[in-house]
Specification:
Blueprint (H helix, E strand, L loop, with lengths): L1 E2 L2 E6 L2 E2 L6 H9 L16 E3 L5 E3 L8 E2 L15 E6 L2 E2 L11 H17 L4 E4 L13 H7 L16
Parallel strand pairs: 2-7, 2-9, 3-8, 4-7
Antiparallel strand pairs: 1-6, 4-5
Length: 164
């Protein structure tokens, strides 16, 4: 059990306007590698934001300041034991190039989620998957967006954070 430190934002890396189901996420992440999956025991995300803004829980958790073993999801290697991971459906254009495809409903849901959870978890730093891997995920500038929605600077992760 570790102290909860990060909320990491992801995209499903699927084309815009294409919905994704929880079952698809589970298959992509938990099927054996020889069957097209990653072979993990659980999915990489705690929750998923659908195109209509609905938030679906994928890995159960409680709202305390700790990440119990049963709460771990596998979204960013080396960070999972101290993070929660949320994914929005989309993140690619029709040619599978990175693109911010968040619908207005997804933007609203993600904003509400970030703000409500930083109230519950004031120590959280909000980060993007790209902070911890060589990927474009979640296909938008998370730091800029967090500033636009008035998230406190202390909650915005940067590679070289300013000591506050």
């Amino acid at each position: 059990m570790a102290h909860l430190e990060y909320l990491i934002i992801h995209c499903t890396a699927t084309p815009e306007h294409r919905e994704v189901t929880a079952n698809e996420i589970y298959r992509w992440h938990t099927n054996p590698k020889d069957k097209g999956g990653r072979g993990w025991s659980k999915p990489g995300y705690s929750e998923m934001i659908h195109l209509d803004g609905t938030i679906e829980e994928l890995v159960p958790y409680n709202d305390d300041h700790w990440v119990d073993n049963w709460e771990v999801s596998f979204g960013a290697k080396g960070m999972n034991y101290k993070s929660r991971h949320i994914v929005y459906v989309g993140g690619c254009d029709k040619n599978m190039k990175p693109k911010d495809t968040r619908t207005d409903a997804q933007k609203e849901a993600l904003e509400m989620y970030v703000k409500s959870h930083t109230t519950l978890q004031p120590q959280w730093r909000i980060a993007a998957h790209y902070h911890f891997s060589r990927k474009a995920c979640p296909s938008f500038d998370v730091e800029q967006w967090l500033k636009e929605i008035n998230v406190k600077q202390k909650n915005i992760y940067t590679k070289n954070p300013t000591v506050l």
